[in-house]
Design a protein that fits this description.
The complex is a heterodimer. By secondary structure, chain A is α/β, with parallel strands linked by helices. In chain A, 30% of the residues lie in helices and 17% in strands. The structure holds iron/sulfur cluster (SF4).
Chain lengths: 194, 470
Amino acid sequence: MKPLRQLRSRTVVLPTRDIDTDQIIPARFLTTTSREGLGKHLFADLRFAPDGQPRDEFPLNRPDTDGCEILVAGNNFGCGSSREHAPWALLDYGIRAVVSTEIADIFRNNSLKNGLVPVVVPPDAHDFLLANPGVEVSLDVERAELRIGDGAAVPFPIDAFARYCLIEGIDQLGFLQQQMDHIEHFEEQRPWTP
Amino acid sequence: MGAARTLFEKVWSEHVVVEETPDTPAVLYIDLHLIHEVTTPQAFSLLRDKGLPVRRRDLTLATMDHSTPTTPVSSIKDLLVVGESAAAQVRQMQQNCADFDIELLGFDSDQRGIVHVIGPELGATQPGKTIVCGDSHTSTHGAFGALAFGIGTTEVGHVLATQCLLQRKPRTLAIEVDGQLSTGVGAKDLILAIIGEIGVDGGTGHVIEYRGRAIEALSMDARMTVCNMSIEAGARAGMIAPDETTFEYLQGRPRAPQGAEWDAAIARWRALASDDGAEFDRTVSIDASRLEPMVTFGTNPGMVVSVNDPVPDAAGDPSFQKALDYMQVDTGKPLTEAPVDVVFVGSCTNSRLSDLEQAASILAGRRVADGVRMLVVPGSQQIKKAAEDIGLDRVFTEAGAEWRESGCSMCLGMNGDTVAKGQLSVSTSNRNFEGRQGIGARTVLASPLTAAASAVSGHVADPRPLMDRS
Ligand code: SF4
């Protein structure tokens, strides 16, 4: 995982609520055994017509959104399945942060483990971002703040441990492995065994 | 005496290896890790890259269900996985289980089936356990009073390597269901009504405990249907306190405790129920006796109405309107006027024997309407056999439905069983997301009774008029 401390980017906006993981990456692309290369299938059925032609009206297909690294989405982004292919696809496409008023639990967990920052903001900041696609935004992971243009900083909640892993680029498995003595002790003193 | 605790708190605290602090999450021990072909290949790659073994093979159980073909075959050798990449994924799963010495209930096993159906069926799912799987419907196992939740592939790797997960303690939500479900209204209608009430994000950050008289009255099959869809309300998990119904279901199952161990287990399990006076972070109350058969009309499970109620209009909400446009349903009218192309009875929500019996009770002596394709896919090979032993397969095939091998099938259309663009499908599965059952497929979620009634009627139908055969 690459360390991510700060990020400055214009936004790309998908205002729809409840964008689920089936829309982020449809099931037919889950037969892969790798985590690479899913970006080309990101939002496949929203981005492309059945004949494979890009849908011009879809925000990610507009030339002015090229290179945008921050996605602003409607409430409850990432609901549905546990497929980690969803953050893999977003990252592979070039998205590094998702901003919404609510981000589904499993998707948020999966994102944090891959260096995609889930940013939950209050409704007023969200409304402004939805209404102003393409606005320049700075994300400061260390301070857990989002700044819209040169405006005031909007704080967002992020678990301290997950933030530490993001800014240092640390893989959480290493931390778990350091707990092995505790894990073995737990197994030995259990009153019952599964 | 300590403070009154909830079922969730009891199971949680018994599995905490290292307590959480403001700076670090808790280390939580996992008792059962279920794995399937779609969400594990990258986790095994990680183990290989790091040269790590699977730490507790004995607590890991594998099956293949998602891309499994369900077309009837005379011999297992004839099973053909649709698509080269799906076939490669299946081979990878077989290789991973062989290399890491994990028990795989594969294509040649008569115990295989949908991962959330076979865990309980084999008795591996038990009260008080922590259970995870790289699959969001792991919440199903909470019906037994287990703490069961879906995880991503990175976390699958964590559990394979350490048998533990890093977790922050979720909040608790009590859903109190009083009253009694009326005839023709079942667990699926109840959970759809609950999601309609609290919303598809109503459970985010919470573990739900379903409680109250209407929940206690449910069979294990029905409790699994309820807990299965907890994730559709955004919840981390759903749980139901274990009771006599739970113990009766588990007793004698191959992986359940036996003999003296059984007695010890029962004593332990009886103590799991939430203590009187235990506090939940939130409580929602539902009256079961008010409920009617429910159907979804939009593109998430929270967009749901009673089968005879009119579909609401968008009232200027663009996301709602987008869903209505996708579904091409008329607002202001009930869905019962919508013609049906496909009916699917199956999935980890509704593919157990009692679900199939309910569908068969409507189909017996009737025909699937002209132009409707009906697929019945049992949740496991054991359910398939049990259904055939009591002649359900004949009821389905004589009515003109297709009777299949077990698997996820048309729930997510990864195995070639898909709904065509624009077709309306009445499905007993759990997700009516855009494109879930096939590109452009329009899905109406419903109970097995409603699905079967819709199949014979040719349009979305209330099952109750078809139930009275006197
Ligand atoms: S039946 Fe559907 S929801 Fe259940 S595990 Fe399979 S794909 Fe997932």
